């Protein structure tokens, strides 16, 4: 993580809303929506550009939207 200015340095993240204006992703009306900034931190941390991000519980679609906006490929599905 040394020298990585694109990643949140702490293990305690505070994301007050689904979309704070920084990144529009997912359906904000979905119950239990994942904050876009949280998804962004996780995708940047664990997937390289061009990697495939598989989201088996897609819900609002936030993680897939964020992954694609960051240059990752994404497959999202949900069994609801």
Q: What are the salient characteristics of this protein?
A:
24% helix; 2 strands; 80 residues; 2 helices; two-stranded parallel ribbon; alpha+beta
Task: Report on this structure.
This protein has a domain at 49-80. Helix 1 packs across helix 2 (62-69). It has helices at 36-46, 62-69, and strands at residues 52-55, 73-76. The protein is α+β, with helices and mostly antiparallel strands and 80 residues long. It is globular, with a radius of gyration of 12 Å. A two-stranded parallel sheet has the order 1-2. Helix 2 links the parallel strand 1 and strand 2 (73-76).
Largest beta sheet: strand ordering: 1-2
Stretches where pLDDT is under 50 for at least 5 consecutive residues are none
Helix content: 10-25%
Broad structural category: alpha+beta
Question: What's the helix count?
Answer: 2
Largest sheet: 2 strands, parallel
Radius of gyration: 12 Å
Question: Whole-Å distance between the termini?
Answer: 37 Å
Strand fraction band?
A: 5-15%
Mean pLDDT: 80
Order of helices and strands: HEHE
How many beta-strand segments?
Answer: 2
Based on Cα principal axes, name the global outline. globular
List the helices and strands and how they pair.
Blueprint: H1 36-46, E1 52-55, H2 62-69, E2 73-76
Parallel strand pairs: 1-2
Helix pairs in contact: 1-2
């Amino acid at each position: 993580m040394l020298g990585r200015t694109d990643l949140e340095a702490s293990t305690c993240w505070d994301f007050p809303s689904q979309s704070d204006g920084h990144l529009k992703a997912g359906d904000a009306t979905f119950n239990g929506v994942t904050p876009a900034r949280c998804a962004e931190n996780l995708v940047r941390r664990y997937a390289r550009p061009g990697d495939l991000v598989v989201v088996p519980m897609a819900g609002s679609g936030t993680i897939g939207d964020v992954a694609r906006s960051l240059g990752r490929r994404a497959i999202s599905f949900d069994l609801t």
